[in-house]
Amino acid sequence: MQKKMVSYLFFLLITSVTLSFAQTPAVNPYPAGSYPDRIFLNITEDASTSIAASWRTGVETGENFLEIMPATDTPSGIKNAMSYKAFTEPFELNNVKANYHAARVKDLQPNTLYMYRVGAGNYWSEWFHIKTAGKPGEKFSFIYMGDVQVGMRTLWPRVIREAYKKVPDARLIMYAGDIVNRGFNDHEWGELFDGGSFIHSTIPGLPSPGNHEHADNAEGVNVITPLWRVQFALPDNGPDGLEETCYYADVQGVRFISLNSQAIWFGGEMMQRQIDWLHTILKNNPNKWTCVTFHHPVYSVKSNRDNKNLREKFQPIFDQYKVDLVLQGHDHAYGRGMKNVAMPDKKGTSATMYVVSMAGSKMYDENKQDWMDKAAGHIQLYQVITVDGDKLSYNSYTATGKLFDAFDLIKQKGKINKIVERR
Ligand SMILES: [Fe+2]
After folding, report:
1. How far is the CA of 177 from the centre of ligand 1 (A)?
2. CATH of domain 37-131
3. In this structure, how many other beta carbons lie within 10 angstroms of the beta carbon of residue 18?
């Protein structure tokens, strides 16, 4: 009995040490240095003609640059690269200091393979390839990830690597929030960038923030981590006060929209601004397809969770403008379905497909709800979505690459008129 008690106390000691290390490591495991790191390629408002990269270096470094040129087979071609001076911002949070850099390049050629690097002097990144987006209607694929949040450098890297192996030419990766567990902890972002490695520098990312990227400040106001805006360079086309968390980007005939659902959850002015903005960008939308991502789901996977503001204020907008796909996270289980199906032979208001998924290792139980056509728990997933003219094909794969869920949406005269289940 005494032996049992001793081993239990030892277990508690080890657990508390592990947890405290997970929260505040005694030694910063990801110090910024002379070489650029955390190099993130951001989605841009027009991905066919522009790119935006962000990265960091140590505080001892000075100005940094982005060099870019059409990709060549001969290494001697790099002397012809164009150089762009980065916007540099010294930054400190919780005693972790770094210089953050961002560079945006415009007037690129669509559907063209470029090579770029970032840095200065003797300290440059490797050259990365990036293919600009093509024209509306041309076939392309993108990746969607639910919450990463836990296991960023342990169990999630295998998921993003499988996704990259499946579609190395994906045009973007969407993250539906809670990308890390504690958004104000620098080392958690270090783990995320460690886990994603060069993939983050090769395929543009479209991150949407979750509740874990927010926390209450000294005045008790819930705010996004200041690391969000320094380490990303996302489109600045959203409402005031929600910069780079609420934005849109057009890629080959699809309008991608990120909403800040944490601000929606709290309601008030920041929700209203998103409502007004969403009406504007959906009313003036020349794209055939519309895909919206945010963190808190309109319809939850768990019966005891309800994000009322999203359901009552935003679903009617998705219905009104016939948003095709809503990609969400937060519930750590999988759910997929259409709440209101408006097929040609049925009366209804919507043909929006809602998905909740998860990518990291934090898991909740499966919870089948009425709205779902497919549900699962305790499984790591990534999604590959391919848009080809009037057809959108959705494939959800397990961490080991097995097809788990699949459907096609087929449009006629601008509306979805057929859903082909392939699960
Ligand atoms: Fe969450």
Report:
1. 7
2. 2.60.40.380
3. 10
Measured CA distances, 142 to 68, 223, 256 (Å): 23, 29, 11
Task: Determine the distance separating the centroid of ligand 1 and the alpha carbon of 334, expressed in angstroms.
Answer: 14
d(CA 204, CA 131): 10
Domain residue spans in the chain? 37-131, 140-421
**Ligand 1 center–CA 413 separation, angstroms:** 37
CA 188–ligand 1 middle distance (angstroms): 16
Print pLDDT tens along the chain (423 aa). Answer: 344 444 434 433 333 333 333 456 788 999 999 999 999 999 999 999 999 999 999 999 999 999 999 999 999 889 889 999 999 999 999 999 999 999 999 999 999 999 999 999 999 999 999 999 999 999 999 999 999 998 999 999 999 999 999 999 999 999 999 999 999 999 999 999 999 999 999 999 999 999 999 999 999 999 999 999 999 999 999 999 999 999 999 999 999 999 999 999 999 999 999 999 999 999 999 999 999 999 999 998 887 888 889 989 999 999 899 999 999 999 889 999 986 554 444 444 457 999 999 988 888 888 888 888 899 888 999 999 999 999 999 999 999 999 999 999 999 877 887 888 887
Burial 30-43 (b: 16+ CB within 10 A, else e): bebeebbbbbbbbb
Ion ligand 1 neighbours, Cβ < 5 Å: 178, 210-211, 330
Question: What is the dotted CATH code of the domain comprising 140-421?
Answer: 3.60.21.10
Confirm if 293 and 173 have CB atoms less than 8 A apart: no
pTM of the predicted structure, to 2 decimals:
0.91
Residue 236 to residue 364: CA distance in whole angstroms: 35
Q: Ligand 1 centre and the CA of 150: distance in Å?
A: 11
Q: How far is the CA of 302 from the centre of ligand 1 (A)?
A: 13
